[in-house]
Amino acid sequence: MNIHELVELNNQKRKLLTEENRKYYEKMLVYIRLSYRISDLETEETLSELLDHLLDAQEEGKNAEEVFGKNPKKYADEIIGELPKMVTKERTSLIGMGILFFLAVSMILSGIIALVSHYYFTEAGLMKEFYLGSALLKTAISIPVAFFLLYSIIFYLRWSCFKKINKIAEFFVFWFYGAFSVGLFVIIYLFIPSFGPKLEISVFIVIMSGVILFILGTLFKRKIEKGKR
Amino acid sequence: MSIRSQLLKGILEGCILAIIERKSVYGYELSVLLHNYGIEVSEGSIYPILLRLQKEKLIKGEVKKSQSGPNRKYYSLTDSGARALNEFQIHWLEMKVSVDQLLNKGDEN
């Protein structure tokens, strides 16, 4: 079975759990899935094994706490500790894919913004100006920043997994975090001075290149998933 | 941790290997068999051990259809698993004899 089939089967089987067992199991599931250092396929296989066990135990009238112990985080950490680590090749492909998607989305977005401003404010032309030096520097800074922001979210989600957190407070935290992230990129883009040779590229070419990068990213993603079967 | 569970921690791996040698089992089945042999552990604790034994290539897991219907991951012993079990048995006997002697000596004095 591949990862998608395993995940789908898990979604179906989880419905058979009692409310109490489902809550316990799902916290563990999210926590284990978010630990990005371990190999995906083995993780899903183990998660489905644990679910099967819990379903069997449930038939015998036992609950999740009796099966996995009173401390789900500790148990999940034990499982994570024994799961095979993601191999470096797998990790490099994932990072490569992340970079492709990031570049694709930022090119498409900047193209669309230029297009919209062309139609609303006539002074903006359909040619986009690039300064090679600053464009490269912006990219070089943005990519690690994007990874850091993503890493922080994963870190927060893992940390909050087994904690009771006020939903409203969480909403505001995420809202501020979103605003902070956008602000960070705006600062990077506004405050890096223009330098290097000037290039003029049509907005449509920018968008097209973005789309091509996006397709490349998707193909890359398929290849990674295929390799895991 | 109680003395009992500390004692068990080290020998549980050997017990699991011994059960898997007799017949290939899936996780839930294994926990039931351990229980039937009087080896009381929390059921979940077998999974980290099963993962470790797989990593060390002492056992291998294979997804097969079970009698009750759904697919299960059945574990069986590898060649090096059989050797590891053999070693465990030797160490266990040695240790058992010495510990018995030690404990019984205490009685005699």
Automatic annotation (TrEMBL), chain A:
<keyword id="KW-0812">Transmembrane</keyword>
<keyword id="KW-1133">Transmembrane helix</keyword>
<dbReference type="InterPro" id="IPR009214">
    <property type="entry name" value="DUF1129"/>
</dbReference>
<feature type="transmembrane region" description="Helical">
    <location>
        <begin position="171"/>
        <end position="195"/>
    </location>
</feature>
<feature type="transmembrane region" description="Helical">
    <location>
        <begin position="201"/>
        <end position="220"/>
    </location>
</feature>
<keyword id="KW-0472">Membrane</keyword>
<dbReference type="Pfam" id="PF06570">
    <property type="entry name" value="DUF1129"/>
</dbReference>
<feature type="transmembrane region" description="Helical">
    <location>
        <begin position="141"/>
        <end position="159"/>
    </location>
</feature>
<feature type="transmembrane region" description="Helical">
    <location>
        <begin position="94"/>
        <end position="121"/>
    </location>
</feature>
<protein>
    <recommendedName>
        <fullName>DUF1129 domain-containing protein</fullName>
    </recommendedName>
</protein>
From TrEMBL, chain B:
<feature type="domain" description="Transcription regulator PadR N-terminal">
    <location>
        <begin position="16"/>
        <end position="86"/>
    </location>
</feature>
<protein>
    <submittedName>
        <fullName>PadR family transcriptional regulator</fullName>
    </submittedName>
</protein>
<dbReference type="InterPro" id="IPR052509">
    <property type="entry name" value="Metal_resp_DNA-bind_regulator"/>
</dbReference>
<dbReference type="InterPro" id="IPR036388">
    <property type="entry name" value="WH-like_DNA-bd_sf"/>
</dbReference>
<dbReference type="InterPro" id="IPR005149">
    <property type="entry name" value="Tscrpt_reg_PadR_N"/>
</dbReference>
<dbReference type="InterPro" id="IPR036390">
    <property type="entry name" value="WH_DNA-bd_sf"/>
</dbReference>
<dbReference type="Pfam" id="PF03551">
    <property type="entry name" value="PadR"/>
</dbReference>
